[in-house]
Amino acid sequence: MKILVVGGAGYVGSHAARILDRAGHEVWVYDNLCYGHRSAVPKGRLIEGSLLDGAKLTELMQAKQIEAVMHFAAYAYVGESVTDPSKYYGNNIGGSISLLDAMVAAGVKRIVFSSTTATYGVPEQIPITEQEKQQPINPYGFTKLVIEQALADYARAYDLGYAALRYFNAAGASPDGDLGEDHDPETHLIPLVLQVALGQREQISIFGDDYPTPDGTCIRDYIHIDDLGTAHLKALDLLEPGQSLQLNLGTGRGASVQEVIDACRRVTGHPIPAVISARREGDPPELVADSSLAQRVLDWQPQYNDIESIVATAWNWHRSHPNGYED
Ligand code: UFG
After folding, report:
1. CA distance 121 to 138
2. pLDDT digits (tens, 9 = 90+) for 43-59
3. Does domain 2-170+223-249 have CATH number 3.40.50.720?
4. For a tag on the chain, would you pick the N or C end, based on fewer CB atoms within 10 A?
């Protein structure tokens, strides 16, 4: 298929674009490079532009005869979404609607959308199934939930086929070391811990050790970035106009902050000093996926099933790119 990967210069989008390309699809990346990286996109495949430029998107879809869209373009800093909701509503909702309208205008019928565990808020049950109530506790999660709803409405009205893939904690890097995680500012646990191992930070702060978990630190379900990409590829293969999928993408295994730091110590051989600091506002104690629906429906299995193997790919990237993409 001819696929437009919107936000394909970012962390998740760039890895997925490469997996689509390797599976034989024709991939075009659309990105404003606000957070994305030019060098994460294969030469000649990047079109720079804004999500809000609907006319440009429609023209592009028509010119390239696009058959499906993958939509990764979103602001994703939970804390910032609380202090600057306008930025999140404008881009994550306004931009996504502009993209959907362009698809309708160009007659493109398939879309895979990056949704998130943040749409669940603080879940009542662990592991989290797709039946869990979606009650986001921050504007970021809310913007993603609004677009899930918009997709359902657009699907019904305009015969779109869509998949809303709810990621747990995307982590790791492509094993060949060419693509990896490079956020500015960086707020995610694994890259921050590895920056300590590289000597770029003195220590890692553990945000709270008094949670109701076995070691008192928060538990997350870290899923390898290429396992996410493969799930996108498989979801695309299944999509038909008028049909929808809502799927959790995780491994079903949780790792605590302490366990992640310990894994980083084993992988890097560095002592990685850690200090306990205050809880970060809005962090649920435990988020672990029940991904059995995705495994069944997509015929998909995460290939990276333990935190150490995920961290090893991240370390490979950070060690060889201590300053990220440098672009
Ligand atoms: N953490 C620390 N110290 C740090 C950074 C993080 O202890 O310096 C902890 C956090 O408190 C959390 C865990 O490490 O318990 C993971 O934190 P991340 O920031 O790496 O990831 P989050 O779980 O906060 O965020 C992820 C996605 C978001 C999504 C969110 C939904 O990155 O996009 O899950 O809860 F919105």
Report:
1. 8
2. 999 999 999 999 999 99
3. yes
4. C
